[in-house]
Amino acid sequence: MTSAVNDIVKQANQGSVAAIIQVLNEKLAESGVRTRAIFADGVLQILCEAATAEQLEPAELIKQIRHTLEAIAPRNIRRVNINSRIVREQQLLWLDEISRDPENQLLWSQEITLNKPNLFRHLLSQWNQKAAFHEIKMPKRSSGKQREQHQFWRGLVGGASASLLLLLGGWALYSWLGAPKTGTAVKPESSASPQASNSSQPTQTATPVPILQPTIKQDSFPIAVRIAEQASQAGLTAQSQAQWLELAARWQRASDLMADVPAGDSRYQTAQDRVIAYRKNKELALAKANQQPDPSPLETEPSPIPDGEPTPP
Questions:
Q1: Is the pTM value of this prediction over 0.90?
Q2: N or C terminus: fewer CB in 10 A for the chain?
């Protein structure tokens, strides 16, 4: 689990908006504040939502967000606009809504500029990212599981070493027995009876021992977050019926992946909330698709999905 936290922090440092949201939500979980974010026009737009206005007190909330983002030091992100409002039903195009009517949509809004870390601080943060985010509460692995994993990897390395030694030994034996020695005369009758000569020299072959690789189950939570982020960005420009149908498929895919998060995972409750939210976004996208006119024959081909993104079901 610690490696998963480090992966999320690394992705946030590289500028992933989905990873930044996950880190912020972990930091603000105790205060009851949830965040959403979009990177648009060089500004990271963050929406903070809570049940009451007291939970969104600007001084403390801005301080926490600034401290977290400067610890992450996300690449190419310096300007951050923090928006807050009372929690409401998920909106697919929330940035458009608050941009059109900020006075009625928001409690307050504040833009901040992150301090650029110096070289020493950046190297220290890269060297010891675990210490920078020790406040994120994640379940620790038991000593028994750690010991079992250590023994597994030690056996795996030992098996690979033994296989390599066996292969090298077989190759050396084959070279020593099969290659002719320098200065040894070749008898004429040996060329006349190649079969007899071959039968007198046994060929030594080494069969490599297959190395078992551990099966690693893919974590569906960050994949679902990435698909949801891409769907949210695509929703800003979607116009045709085919585009809205594609968005609906993406939201469905993200919801299915969130539903795969096991009950023993610390993010299970968050995943269950997002299952419902993503399904609502899918219904909104389907409603948008139904409002569009039927596409002409030249418009029926859907736009391609970017490389690396899981194909919607």
A1: no
A2: C
